[in-house]
Amino acid sequence: MKIKLALVAALAMTAGVVALSGSALAEPKTPSPSPAPADQRPTVSPSAKQPVVIDPAYTG
Amino acid sequence: MRINLLGAVAVAVLLTGCAAEARSAVPPEPARAVTSKIATVKGPRITVYRSKDGQRQRTITSPNDYGATRVFLVDRDEGEWLRVLLPVRPNGSTGWVKAADVTLAETAHRVEIDGRAFRFTVYDGDRTIKTGKVATGEAGTPTPPGRYFFTELVRPADPAGAYGAYAFGLSGYSPVLKSFAGGPGQLAIHGTNKPSAIGTRASHGCVRVSNADITWMAKNLAIGTPVVVKG
Which of B68, B106, B162 sits opposite A44 (nearest CB)? Predict the structure, then answer.
């Protein structure tokens, strides 16, 4: 009888662990802010800029 | 009965193992490319807000004092509102602009300056695409660590002068010099006519690189490219 009880307890514990794993897997993920599709986001073109010809006044 | 008990334990272990396997079978998140957003001002001026509730902070004109169209590095994108890094004192200032007032573009490039090692590194995403040596500010006029971006590209009228072949203005300022050479003490990365000083503390706060390196940057990097200076 004791052995039967131990057997039932072991199976119940296993079912609990499996159920918990399942709920963790099913937990919805927080959606990360999704950027616009790549083809809609222009990439800056380094060659598009024209340097200003001037005597600059930076800190040298 | 002992065999039955052992069998039950074995089944339990197997079931638990299956659950763990199912968890590890979830595909990992795809690696994200490292990109930065650059906001270009559409009109002749833009209102910068302290917060998204519409409290005005300041108005910034475009083009800037060098005649370049005003850009900002986007610090946070919240759809209709963008928090941007501002090219004003104190260094690191931010403000909110309306997304409708700018056009957005992206770059995977960024520049890192390691002041202790006197080195710069240019990245394209996670990939290093260029490295070289720099000169930084002297002890009395240090190059302040921080996060900046390129504000304009200048080709000095005298390419044999102190600024070398090109100069990229930065969005930051000297913590010591409130004005310099008629300007507001703005930092820059530029070439040099004293290549022997590269690898030392030699400037008034600017980052000097070789003329070959600044020419490469001028050809390959966009205005708005983020620049991180590490002390």
Answer: B106
**Strand order in B81-85's β-sheet?**
B56-61, B45-49, B94-98, B81-85, B71-78, B36-41, B102-107
Total domains in chain B come to 2
What percent of chain A lies above the pLDDT cut of 90? 15
Domain range holding B49? 36-107
Same structural domain, B93 and B130 = no
Choose the mutation target among B2, B3, B5 for the interface with A, i.e. most A CBs under 10 Å. B5
Residue ranges of chain B whose pLDDT lies below 70: 1-33
Q: Is the ipTM of this complex over 0.95?
A: no
Under DSSP, the state recorded for B177 is: -
Q: Amino acid identity of B28?
A: P
- Which residue of B163, B173, B189, B229 is the best one to mutate when testing the A interface, meaning the one whose CB has the most A CBs within 10 A? B163
Task: Please identify, among B64, B91, B107, the residue that sits at the C-terminal boundary of a domain.
Answer: B107
